[in-house]
Specification:
single chain; alpha+beta; 4 domains; 5-stranded antiparallel β-sheet; 4-stranded antiparallel β-sheet; 40% helix; elongated
């Protein structure tokens, strides 16, 4: 004689019912060819299925996983990125912008354009690229050299373009551009163009001095051509380095501006002085102006 069961009534919305049926279907809890919510509830009650919180992950964990997801996308590991994306979407802790960007990735994975760029780089084939700037305005660039490069925990496409940059870079580097891979739209039109592939980005030599503890703590980089100790008191370390972007160079040394002096070339030195002066004036206004009004 079979065990007599007890019936219960669930008062749920159609959406919740659909979600429960989807879970039952995923776990193989069926009545004939239809998902069975009763079997799902019974399995939960008998602890055959473990129920855990979906909102107890720290923001640091979410950010670490989101960073991993972005790096997988940037490096072209799209299958692994999709696994990470689905894992993140299961969590209720995701903020709206992150959830939206992940959903957009899953809707239109950048597989086609990423593979196309990698192929053109390998073949030394110049190409035209469509790109969205920070304001999401579209631009097109004719690219005659490109390489995928890590900068500041992200992956970028460093390029030599026929189009001259309108940024505040020095004249010798105006053809060099740096594109964030996540700003290349999924439907990006990447087409081959005529021309000769360049051997590298434009480059210049910069010389700068390091003083104080920074001089002793400095770790030489692959781009360094020479580093020597000057016969001064206190000791000063002089570095000569090849750079292809003043943006990333300034970003690196700005936190150490008080212990770092650019010696050459003059235009790189002058533009860095402008940045330091602008920062000083902004801080001065924030501190002094309220005191004056008092």
């Amino acid at each position: 004689m079979g065990r007599k069961g007890h019936s219960i009534t669930l008062s749920i919305s159609d959406r919740d019912k659909t979600n429960l049926e989807a879970i039952a279907l995923e776990l193989g809890m069926m009545w004939g060819d239809r998902p069975n919510i009763s079997k799902l509830v019974e399995a939960i009650a008998s602890k055959q299925i473990q129920i855990s919180k979906n909102n107890d992950w720290s923001s640091d964990r979410i950010e670490a996983l989101a960073q991993t997801f972005r790096l997988l996308v940037d490096y072209g590991e799209l299958e692994k990125a999709q696994v990470m994306a689905n894992l993140l979407l299961e969590r209720s802790e995701l903020n709206s912008p992150l959830r939206r960007s992940i959903e957009q990735f899953l809707d239109k994975p950048p597989e086609i354009w990423r593979h196309t760029i990698d192929r053109y780089i390998k073949q030394h084939q110049p190409f035209r690229l469509r790109y969205l700037d920070a304001a999401e305005s579209p631009h097109e660039f004719a690219i005659y050299y490109a390489k995928v490069t890590p900068h500041d925990k992200r992956i970028y496409l460093d390029c030599w373009c026929i189009d001259i940059a309108k940024s505040d870079t020095v004249t010798a580097l105006q053809h060099n551009r740096c594109f964030r891979l996540d700003r290349i739209p999924p439907e990006a039109a990447i087409t081959p163009i005529q021309g000769k592939w360049r051997s590298q980005l434009d480059q210049i030599l910069v010389t700068f001095n390091l003083s104080g503890n920074l001089a002793f703590a400095y770790q030489p980089r692959d781009e360094d051509i020479n580093h020597t100790w000057l016969e001064t008191s206190p000791p000063v370390r002089q570095i000569t380095r090849t750079i292809s972007s003043t943006f990333w160079f300034y970003r690196e040394i700005m936190p150490y501006a008080e212990d770092c002096e650019i010696i050459a070339p003059d235009d790189v030195r002058a533009k860095f002085q402008e940045k330091v002066r602008s920062l000083y004036l902004r801080v001065y206004q924030e501190i002094i102006d309220p005191l004056i009004r008092i």
